[in-house]
Specification:
By secondary structure, the protein is of the alpha/beta class. The protein contains four helices and seven strands. It has a seven-stranded mixed sheet with strand order 1-2-7-6-3-5-4.
Amino acid sequence: MSLPGTAVLRMETTPQRTGTFDGAWWPRTRDTESQLSGLLIALAARLGPIARVGLDASAWDSAPGRLVVEGHPVGIDWSAASDSTMIVTRGDQDHFLFLVIPPETAPSPARAAMAMAVQDDNAVSAERILAATGVTRADRSGVPRSSAGRAGPV
């Protein structure tokens, strides 16, 4: 059984990436610090130090300019794109794109969206993936803003 809050990763660091997304993330809440810190620890273990993260400001409770994760500062860039994606930057040029599943999404559509996002040769947008897997507009906007919880394994 998968638990929300952990990244499903497909990491390819070569320029020949074949899909739109490098991974997908299903946080448990909209609490930026608790959810993003756990994800960044997992990503740093896989990729090395993370320099920056880009997120949609409307999807989170707070918008800090940076987090310190295991002693390393990580800059956070906020946009109003509302596109259900997250960009993770390692170093100066390595960028990884993640689909972000809303925390209140039911398990079945969340798992389906995550699986679709990481398929090889997937060229479908986040909006189309979420629609195709039954993640509704209500899932993306009607969440309690702060609730306790910590990321767990997928």
